[in-house]
Structure formats: C-alpha cells, structure tokens
Specification:
The complex is a heterodimer of chains A (361) and B (527). Chain A is α+β, with helices and mostly antiparallel strands. Chain A is built from 9 helices and 16 strands. A 5-stranded mixed sheet of chain A has the order 2-1-5-3-4, with helices on one face. A 3-stranded antiparallel sheet of chain A has the order 10-11-12. A two-stranded antiparallel sheet of chain A has the order 6-9. In chain B, the strands form 6 sheets. Chain B has a 6-stranded mixed sheet. The chains are: A alpha+beta (361), B alpha/beta (527). The structure holds iron/sulfur cluster (2 copies) and FE2/S2 (inorganic) cluster (FES).
C-alpha cells in the first residue's frame, strides 16, 4: 500500500539468466521471484534469515564453498547456480541427516500451518529416514496446557519457534537449552508454558516445519473423517481484523490457522483468534426460534410462528404508541449486512432514526 | 484510525493513552514491540502498570479520569517551549491563536496537582512527543468511556494538530476499535445521527436521497441514543429489536438495564446464545454465528474485509440480514427482497460515498481502506493527507472536569474496569471455547499489596465491592499493576457482574457510559 516499487538497477546471473534485483535482496528472495525451487527449513519470510539448516545453499562462482542463499545479500555481477549436481547431493545428505534424527511418522496437517514442510522435502528428495542410525535427538515434554503440544522428538533445532517468539511477539517465552545433540527447545526454567511469558498466541506452532510443536485443539480432529478444508475469513474478536483460515472437516469447524498474507496481521494471531473458535459449534447454541408463552417461559416454535409474532408485536406497539416507540440496537459483532438491515428496518419501516449500535466494546 | 496498522512500524514516538494494547489488541501490540526494538520511543499514560507500560520509555500513572489535565499540561509545555508546528497550524488549522492563549494557565504543576504525576514527567512527555518527527497517538476505551470522553479525544486532536502529527505516514490519532465490526456497524448507518456512510440525517440532500430510496419520508432529526432509549423504556419506548448484544451484562448499571428491558411491551432478540438478555425477551431468534455465514466486516483501520462461511449453521439458525428482512416483509416494509449478503452489501455501496468504489467482488482480497469514492480509486490508508474533510482542523478549547463520581469517605477507592487477554467482552464466546479456563477460570480484583493491609484484605480471600449502585463479591488478588488506592477488574464473568457497580455518568455528547471510573468501598468478606 505504501510500498513504492523499488528501482531495480543492478543485475546478477541466475542459472545463466540475467535477473535484476533491488538493494538488500538476498539470493534466496531473488531465486523465489525467478521461480527457482530452493529448499529451506529454517526460513520463515517474516523472520530475519538465520542460516542454520544450510539446505538453501547455492553455488556462487568465485567462492570455494556453497553459500546459504537466505543469508547472502545479492551483489551486482554475481554468478549463481541454484541447482548443480554437487548442490543437490549436498542437500540430500543434509536431509538424510535430519531424517535420521527424527522418528519416521506421519504428521497430521492439523498440527500447524508449516507442519508438513520437512515431510514434503523428504518426499520430494526421495529421502528415507534411517540412513544414519543415530539416537533420537529430543524428548517429549510434560506440559498439560490444552493448546500447544510439545513433541520434541520431531524437533530439528531450526529455531523458528524461538525466533518468532522473540522477533514477532517480543515475548521471549522460549529458548534453546543445551548444545549439540541434546539441544532442546524449552520454556523459561524448563517449565510449563503457563508459568512462562507465553501468551499462547500459537505463533511457534504455526511456524514449526516438523510438527514438533502442534495445535492441540485442532489435533482433536485428527481422527475425524473427511477432507481438511480451509476457508479464508477474519477473526471474530477485536477490531484489528486479523485474517484467518477456518479449518473444517465435513460439517465440523476444527481449528484456525493465521493467514500469512492477511493485511492487518501478516501471519500473526493472538490467543483469542487462534484458539477461541469452538463456541461456534457449542451445545449451548440457539438452534430454534423461541417465543415466550402465557406461562412466562420461552418455548421452541417454528420460524413462521416466531417471525409472525415478532412482526405482530411491532405492529401493535406502532398502533398504540406511535412510530417513535420502536427502537433498534445493532451489533458491533455481526457483519455489515446485519447492521444495515437493522437501520433500514427502523428508517424504512417507521421513518425515524431510532437506531444505535453497541458502541461499548 | 487515521493511519493504517502497517504504519505502526514508522513512528519515532508512540503516545499510547488509555489502551491496554497487549491484552486487548495483541497483534497490533506486536507491531509496536518491533518498532521499539528498532529504536522508537514510547510514552504510556495509564493508571495501571500494564504490560505496555513496562516497555515504555516513560510511564505516566495518572489518576483515573484525569486525562484531560495531563493533555492540557502537555500542550502547555509544547506551546511554551516552541515545539509547535507553526506552518501546519497556519496552513491547515483554525482557532490556533485562541487555543494557545487558552493553554496559558495549564502549567505542568497545575496538571500534576490533578493527575498525581510528577511535573517533570509531564514536561518530559511533552518534549518527547513535541519533538518527534513522526509522533503517533494510540488510544482505546480508556479514553472514551468517561463522562469527558469527547473532551479526551479532542484534547488528543489538539496535541496532534499543534505538532502537525496528522496526515502523514507514521503519525495520526488512532483509536483501536474493540469489536471486530464496530466500525462497520457505524459505516452501515446503525447510529441515530447518520444514514449509511456517515451521511447526516439532518442534511436535506441525504434525507431526500434516503427517503426516496426507502420509499417513505424519514425524519430529518436525529434519533435518541441507546443510553437514552434504555432510560425511556416503558415511557416513550415500548418495543425493541436487539441484535447479538448481551446488554444486561455488558452495559453499566445492570439493575437499571434489566428493569428497562422488562418494562418493554415487545422485545425481539437476535443472538447465537441464550444469554442473560435473552431471558428477558419475548421472541428470541437464532442467528448464524461467525464461520456459518458470508458477510463483510470493517476493521479499525477502515479495511473492508469478507467473512466467509466454512460450516453449515447450527440447527435452524439463519443470517441476521435474513431474519430482519423476514420481519420487515411481514410488516409490509418494501425493499427487503434480498437473496444473499452480497445483495445487501452492494446496496450499501450504492448509497454510501465512502464505499462508492466498492462492491462485493471488489473486496474479495481486502485491499481497500475506505473512503473509496469511485471505481478505480485505490482506497485511503491515511486520512487527512491533503486537507481535512471539513477544510481546516479545528482546535477545541477543552477544560478539565472531575469524573461523575469522585472518591470520598464512604467510597474511598477508585474502581476501574477493563478486559483481559484471554476473555472477550461478556465471555459468551471465549467462555465456550475449550481450554480458555485453563488460563483464566475466574475473575479477581487486583489490589495493590500496600492496600491489602489498609483494607484488611488477604490475597486469595474475598471482598465485597460496593458502589452507590450495588455490591459484588469477588476474589482478591494482590498485584502491583494497579496503583495504591485504585482497584481493577474486568466485566467478562457473569458471576462477578461488575457492571452492577458502574454507570455513574455519561458523556453529554456521545452518551458513552463512564465505565472506566467509579468510587467504591472494599470490605473483607467470608468465602
Ligand atoms: S520446535 Fe519446531 S520450530 Fe522449534 S526449533 Fe524445533 S523444529 Fe524448529
Ligand atoms: S487474533 Fe487477536 S488481535 Fe487479531 S483480530 Fe483476533 S482478537 Fe484481535
Ligand atoms: S533456509 Fe537458509 S540456512 Fe536454512
């Protein structure tokens, strides 16, 4: 919206093709733009490049070793090869190493937005787990919170969760403990998230590329039949207007994922938008019109009866007390169409402006 | 908001007042955190030591309800020290001279006497904001929910106008809306003073346009506000239709509100749950919930976005627009033959200059922030860029007034209310979402540790909280978030109906209730 297109003056050579770029762009970003498939694991475009997994390496003429494209800023005249035999072999070895340290398990996409990244890469590069028969790199954690599963056997130490928490949320609720093979993601004091600075925004879950962190609420639906569908919408709580994808299986609403391209949130959500969705299919929902009977109680009736009674009541008050006696209060929670029809009901129906909304928020 | 959310990366000084942003608008707060890391400065004015205050360069813990005094004091310093943007004042505003004259008596020492702040801190705040290249103001209900809510907002406008912090990137006056579509409800005309698109009902052209379109003469005079309407129940108001609002729990002075609704001849409620308010209704009509219907909502930065249906409605629930249309048709009101939300929204676009360039299909990707006056217009992320809607920005000569209720011997403690991160509004939705109670299972009253002894309370014990309107029993929690002499709780739990206590007064212009302040007595009580 405010982004004026940068003047692209400089060029470099990408797989034999001349490509222009603007200052500050990385080789990875340029490759993406040019439609190259460069695999990544520790990369999340919202975070500062980290250069940990080295899967994104490319060959840069004039340097001896391949360079990580996500952390290398482009310079004019560079000659880059994104896919050579050496590079592909290198990537494969890295993936085999990662695979060997992780249990061979299918990760349900309900675990999180990025949860399929590792498995998809393994599949694409036809890597079988288990070539390096090492010990498992992590342990599961006993945290009884109802939102975030911590299944560290799947952790590959990409630091995305730690970085999203620090860089995006500014919360620093999680850190990396120990070094080398015993590395493990942990909350402050290696304790429950509840006792840490964690606000349960779920961002770590959504960026984890392996499903080591999982959305416990969505995972309740793993065994439900049906295909997982995503529907783009907007969070129903505050006025920030974060965009979300509603996850559903057949008729059930089973979870929420942030829209990475939502203009207001750019992939972020808070606990309410992320986890407070299941009121929709709660047993307490009103499912039938209710009308108060002579006994003073509300009784279920069919729509026609209820609507007739609703209209009749307004007609009676209009006759007895005149058109100013009818008042409408619209909702700040319902869509525009609700507020619009409410005000039209009052204005077109009674010729007054006896309408307001609940401006209290 | 005058400026887009994406602009929150750009200010060099934030002035946040009356907004507990990390809990109420968490995702917006993450943008501030990033800007701070980049080196931006932040002033936070709030009686409580809210998390945002912990990140601030300067926290001003002013006494509840004393915002106008602080803002006058700051304006005084800005004027006195020559930090005004004189060319902006000359080119774009009106009433500047009178305003600068008006400020003379309001020294920081005067402001300190009312706010309880240190005069040096008021000076520092004024200089920080006054010297900013891009100073941006953010506020929420802590500013509007007072008897002087309008004065508060006008005082903020004065500050922005005198320093030229409007109409540019990274500046502005930015109210954060509390509800997902409170902006859209106003846009759509659900207010007593305006037709859709903020077209005044007393503007003869607008009145003619709508009278013609709706096929009947519409009064050229404003309707009464909701607050007045509730006072008039059983007197001049005898029937109401209420859409999805748990009025009894969310509104101030609960006893009054309940009595008002009971005295109606006819109350029709459209909602998704059988709320406390539903128990008073004659007819309760089940509406589709979020996720079950298509529609449009407008966020706090005026971005027009689509809501989409993902699952079928529960039971026989129907969209709100359908329900209202059915009642209207039964009363013979013309123009309610809609077949979809799309039909309704496109009608709004045709009638509202701010949406004139939009329709259902064009908002598919949520790129537009209104006003969008014509097709091919790119939308308006920043308001007031070239000029103000009415020509020049007007300074207001605001004076400080005490809250409707001040502490005294009988009610010696200030109570202020708000929201918590995990619970939303009257908790009808968050309370029915699995897991939330793991983090927040009951409401409690925040009391400063120093006050515990003075009030003979125990941390974890119970207290009776009494105002002139009623008593509520609540668990006590020691916390230094609230300053000594002020207690805090939220209104989200029905078993702690805090709004029994509030409602001491209303802003005379907007009739917004003074929910943020009332005077109470706190006494220990057995569990
Ligand atoms: S938990 Fe997931 S995101 Fe965090 S370091 Fe491990 S693999 Fe990466
Ligand atoms: S996710 Fe949180 S910040 Fe975003 S709109 Fe929902 S409630 Fe507001
Ligand atoms: S994606 Fe570049 S090093 Fe991991």
């Amino acid at each position: 919206m405010n982004a004026t297109p940068e003047v692209q003056t400089e060029t470099l050579t990408l797989d034999g093709e001349e490509v222009s770029f603007h200052e500050g762009e990385t080789i990875y970003e340029i490759s993406q733009r040019a439609g190259r498939e460069v695999p990544t694991l520790c990369y999340d475009e919202r975070l500062e490049a980290f250069g940990a997994c080295r899967l994104c390496v490319v060959e840069l003429e004039g340097t001896r070793n391949p360079v990580a494209s996500c952390t290398t800023t482009a310079e004019a005249g560079m000659v880059v090869h994104t896919s050579t035999e050496t590079i592909e072999k290198h990537r494969r070895t890295l993936l085999e190493l990662v695979a060997s340290e992780n249990p061979d398990a299918t990760i349900d996409p309900l675990r999180g937005f990025a949860s399929q990244e590792l498995n998809e890469l393994l599949c694409k590069h036809d890597v079988q787990p288990g070539r390096f028969q090492g010990q498992l790199s992590g342990t599961s954690n006993n945290d009884d919170n109802p939102f975030i599963l911590r299944d560290y056997d799947h952790c590959i130490s990409c630091y995305r969760c730690v970085r999203v928490c620090a860089e995006q949320e500014g919360d620093y609720a999680i850190t990396m403990m120990n070094r080398g093979f015993d590395k493990q993601i942990t909350a402050e004091f290696n304790n429950r998230l509840k006792d840490s600075a964690c606000t349960f925004c779920g961002q770590c879950v959504q960026t984890c590329p392996t499903g080591a962190l999982g959305d416990r609420k969505a995972m309740r639906a793993e065994s439900l039949p049906g295909k997982l569908e995503k529907t783009r919408s907007v969070c129903p709580y505050c006025g920030v207007g974060c965009q979300v994808d509603l996850l559903s299986k057949e008729d059930r609403l089973v979870g929420i994922q942030p829209a990475m391209d939502g203009p207001a949130n750019e992939g972020a959500l808070c606990i309410k938008g992320q986890f407070a969705f299941d009121f929709v299919q709660h047993d307490d929902r009103l499912t039938k019109p209710l009308v108060r009977g002579d006994d003073g109680e509300l009784h279920e009736v069919d729509w026609n009866t209820a609507l007739d009674r609703a209209a009749e009541g307004f007609r009676k008050v209009l006759e007895e007390h005149g058109r100013y006696a009818v008042y409408g209060i619209a909702s700040g929670r319902a869509p525009n169409e609700a507020a619009y029809t409410m005000q039209k009901f009052i204005r077109a129906g009674f010729g007054t402006n006896q309408i307001d909304n609940c401006s209290r928020a | 908001m005058s400026n887009p959310l994406a602009d929150m990366d750009k200010p060099d000084v934030f002035f946040c007042i009356g907004t507990n942003m990390t809990e109420c608008h968490p995702v917006a707060a993450t943008r501030i955190k990033k800007a701070l890391k980049r080196g931006a400065k932040m002033i936070v004015a709030d009686p409580r030591k809210i998390p945002l205050a912990g990140m601030a360069d300067l926290h001003l813990p002013l006494r509840v309800g004393s915002d106008v005094a602080l803002l006058l004091g700051m304006a005084h310093v800005i004027a006195r020290d020559g930090l005004t943007d004189n060319s902006f004042i000359a080119d774009r505003t009106k009433g500047g001279d009178e305003f600068l004259e008006h400020l003379k008596p309001f020294s920081p020492e005067w402001a300190a006497g009312i706010t309880g702040l240190n005069p040096a801190d008021i000076e520092q705040a004024a200089r920080l904001y006054g010297r900013a290249d891009r100073g941006a103001i953010y506020y929420t209900l802590g500013i509007t929910e007072h008897i002087c809510g309008v004065d508060n907002v006008q005082s903020l406008c004065n500050l922005a106008l005198m320093t030229g912090n409007l109409g540019r990137e990274g500046t502005g006056i930015n109210p954060m809306r509390g509800q997902n579509n409170i902006q859209g409800a106003g846009d759509s005309g659900a207010v007593p003073a305006n037709f859709p698109g903020f077209q005044p009902v007393n503007d003869p052209d607008c009145q003619k346009k709508f009278s013609k379109f709706y096929g009947r003469e519409i009064d050229p005079v404003k309707g009464i506000t909701k607050v007045t309407a509730l006072n008039e129940c059983g007197k001049s108001i005898h029937a109401m239709i209420i859409n999805g609002e748990n009025t009894v729990v969310s509104d101030p002075d609960r006893a009054h509100c309940q009595h008002a609704l009971e005295s109606l001849d006819h109350l029709v409620l459209i909602d998704i749950f059988r709320t406390e308010t539903a128990e008073l209704a004659d007819i309760v009509l089940p509406a589709t919930a979020w996720g079950e219907t298509d529609g449009v909502c407008v966020n706090t930065e005026r971005r027009v976005q689509r809501l989409r249906q993902a699952v079928p409605p529960q039971g026989e629930a129907k969209p709100d627009w359908w329900i209202v249309s059915q009642i209207s048709q039964r009363l013979g009101i013309p123009g309610f033959e809609y077949e979809s939300a799309k039909d309704v929204f496109n009608e709004v676009c045709g009638l509202s200059p701010i949406y004139a360039g939009l329709d259902w299909d064009r908002i598919e990707n949520a790129e537009y922030q209104w006003p969008v006056p014509e097709i091919d217009h790119p939308g308006t992320p920043i308001l007031h860029e070239g000029e103000f809607k009415n020509g020049r920005g007007l300074f207001s000569l605001v004076n400080y007034r005490d809250p409707a209720e001040v502490v005294d011997d009988d009610y010696p403690v200030w109570l202020t209310t708000g929201r918590r991160l995990q619970a939303y509004h009257t908790h009808t939705q968050t309370g029915r979402s699995a897991g939330i109670d793991y983090l927040l299972s009951e409401e409690s009253l925040e009391v400063h540790p120093d006050d515990l002894t003075a009030l003979h309370l125990t941390d974890g014990g119970f207290a009776n909280l009494t105002s002139r309107r009623g008593t509520v029993k609540i668990r006590v929690r020691a916390s230094d978030q609230s300053p000594p002499g002020t207690v805090f709780c939220s209104f989200s739990f029905n078993d702690v109906p805090v709004n029994i206590l509030t409602g001491s007064g209303y802003d005379p212009i907007t009739e917004t209730a003074e929910l943020k302040v009332c005077a109470v007595r706190v006494e220990p009580v057995e569990e």
